[in-house]
Every structure is written in structure tokens, then in C-alpha cells.
Design brief:
Blueprint (H helix, E strand, L loop, with lengths): L8 E4 L3 H10 L7 E4 L4 H11 L4 E4 L3 H5 L4 E4 L8 H8 L4 E3 H8 L3 E6 L4 H12 L5 E5 L17 E5 L2 H4 L9 E4 L7 H4 L2 H9 L10 E5 L16 E6 L8 E5 L2 E5 L4 E5 L8 H16 L4 H9 L9 E6 L2 E5 L6 H10 L4 E6 L8 H10 E7 L3 H10 L5 E3 L3 H12 L4 E5 L12 H13 L4
Parallel strand pairs: 1-2, 1-4, 2-3, 4-5, 6-8, 6-9, 7-8, 9-10, 10-11, 11-12, 16-20, 17-18, 17-20, 18-19
Antiparallel strand pairs: 12-13, 13-14, 15-16
Length: 454
Amino acid sequence: MNEWLGQKAGVYGYGKTGKACVSYLLPRLVTPVVLVDNPKPEALAEMQREAQHHFEVAVGPAIPAVIEQLDSLILSPGVPLSNPNVVRARQRGIPVVSELELAARFCPGYVIAVTGTNGKSTTTKLLGHVLSALGPAHVLGNIGAPLLGSLDEIGQGDYVALEVSSFQLEAVERFAPDIAIYTNLTPDHIDRHGSVAEYARVKRSMTDHMRSDGFVITNALCDEFAPQRFANQAPTFLQYRSTPGNRVRGCWQTNNMIFVDLGNELYELPRDCVKLPGVHNLENAMAVILAALLVGATPETVIERLSTFTGYEHRLELCRRAGNLAFYNDSKATNPEATITALKAMDPPLALILGGRDKMTDLAEMVGWVKRKVARVVLIGEAAERFAAALSDMGYNDFLRVENLEQAVPLALKSIQPTGGSVLLSPACASFDQYSGYEERGEHFKNIVAGLKL
């Protein structure tokens, strides 16, 4: 039993993470209490049915009084530290941690944590694919299944490829992965963190408690993740570089070869063992190569596993090809930078579906790439009006506004027929205006595409 867990623990939020927390705590605590601010009536009814005699439920105005009775409070990623009830708990000295913090304290595996703005899901999935050649490997975290809910499946020394979000890192105290991987950083979640500088600081905090035998792997092209920017200098820092430049301690490419320098040996891998398109996927692969070689994989094993990885669902996923037409599901692109990455990797002509819940990030660079590559944009969701204004202001007027994906897909297809091309769903927005998450949005897109008569 963890030293700070008392007889009554609160679980704030009841999504995937909240449910995993309750399942973990039930055998260990007398009465878990689930706190939810503003649940929809049907969600509240389902929660109360599941609670029965197993746990309590506190909603909205009832939460402050319940906070007074708690010995500890565990946060789901969607609950910020600025939440008034969380502030109240901390003021009263009640320990407040994230699910990640709690789970990591009891995890027996070798944890390789991946964070950054874009590419972390693909990197985590690819990492698990490579590490599975060495032994049991678990792909967990922000990518889907919470770490806490999988602890019983993880054996001593198993590999854990763990995607970590900035939301999860806000309420950690001693989380210390064995290896930390950083992909990149672009403006995102400013509504939560307040500034890019604070967003970057929260990301870097993942290494604050790492030991001297740990490794931090960073993108040499990302200034915010330069080794000297990290508060804890105890672990060994390695970098990877996808573009020509100075040789780095870590991984770089030249002349269609990937070179790795870990200090005592130089490795060479063919560039074409990375099958995913785009420079961004080369960077994801370089981070994985470094981590895999650090834990003892041979170059031959790494090459074989990279060569058999064809992608991650909802991230530039080719979901249908018919003659000279192709359809790509990039629903995981929930910010403009992710959409830019997709556009860089794609060949025109393109029809692009944009929109959803707006994160209010700058659109200028994305519109520049749209002007270069996209034949028509179809806008959906809450962000449609602002996106339309941004496109128009920069001289791009070949766009349409519709209500939903059912309307958007046929219009996008029509714009590239009969000559052919690709329809790309890469929304540059969150999905919560119309969907429960990017996965549901991506599945809906794929179902619509599958039903097209081509």
C-alpha cells in the first residue's frame, strides 16, 4: 500500500483513466469516491449503476463537501490543477497525484516514456513493435490503455512503451522513466497551460526525477528540448537529427544511411528500413532506434522490426484505395502542426477535410501548406468559421463549409474526380464538438469511405 493512500480516496473523472483507477483501488481501499463536475444525464445514470455498493459518486455542487473527507485525490488527465476543487484539496494538504504517478510507483517493468506534441503515438507504437522482439512489451498510457489498469499484466523487467501527455505530467511527484523520449514541441494546449513556455516546462518535467543510469532522447531540431534546457542533468542525453547538420551524440542520417553513436560503438542502418512516409516518421524511427539499441537490441533486429511496421491507426492511415483514388485517415492530427506534417508527407492533388473543436492556435503556416498542396478544403465543426477566415485572409478561396463528415467526404471526393488524387482527413482540431475522441471520428470517416460506390 502506498504510504499516502488513506481509507478514502477520490478519483476525479470517470473516463478510461478514472475507471482504471477505481478498478485498482477497490481491492485496496474501503470507499473510493468518483468525482465528476458536469456529467451528461445518461453518463451519470450509467455511473450510478456501476457504482452500486462498490464506490460513491459525487457530482458538481456536492464535490466540495466530499473533498473535505478525502485522504487522497487521483486526477484523470482531463482535470487540471487549476480546477477549484483540486485547488481546495491541495490547500487542505490532501495529496493530489495523476494516475500516471500512482501507476509508476508500482510498475515492475522497464519504462520507456514518450512525450512531445506530435508523433508520440506513432513512436510509442513503433517502440512496442521493436521491443516485442526482445521480450514481453506493453504499449500503454495516453495512447489508449492506462498504465494503472495493466499493472497486473506486467512482469518484472517487461518493457513498457508509455505515451505520456502534458496533462498527465501536471500532477506527478516522483515519476522517473528508465528512458525518456521527446519527439518535438509546437504550440498546443495553450488553453490548459497558458503559454508555450509553460507547456514546454511541463513536458521537460518528465525527467526531473530520473537517475544517473537513465537516458533522455531528444530531437536535435527542437530548441525547447535541447539538453541544457532540462533541470535535471543526471541522466545521459542523446539526440537525433533528421536533416543535414553537425554530427550529434546519438543518431543522424546521411547518404541514405542512419548512423548511431552511443559512445563506444558506431552502428549503421539503411534508411529504407523505415517504411513510413515523411521526415517526421524518420525522426520517430530514429528515437526508437536509439532506445532499442540502448536496451540491447541488435541492429539486425531493429532493421527487421522497422521494416515490418506499416503504421498507426488514425495517423496517415491509408484506409482505402480505388484506382487512382486514395483515402487517408489522419484523425489523430488534432492541431495545425500535425496537419502540416501530414501535408508535407503527401503528394498532390489533395482534398483536405479540416475542422472540429478549435484549439485557437495560429493557422498561418498550415494555410501556407494548404495553398501549396490542396485542391479543395472542406470545413466541418465548430472551427469552420475561423478556419474559413484564415484561408480567405491568405488568399485561398477554394473551400466549402458543411455540417459533418457525411457531407464532407463526398464533396472532397468530387473535387479530385475524375483525374484522381487523395482525400485526407487531417482536422487540425480536437474532435469533442461531435465525437467522444479522435478514434471515433477516424472510425466514422473510415466507415463513410468504405461505403462509397467507386
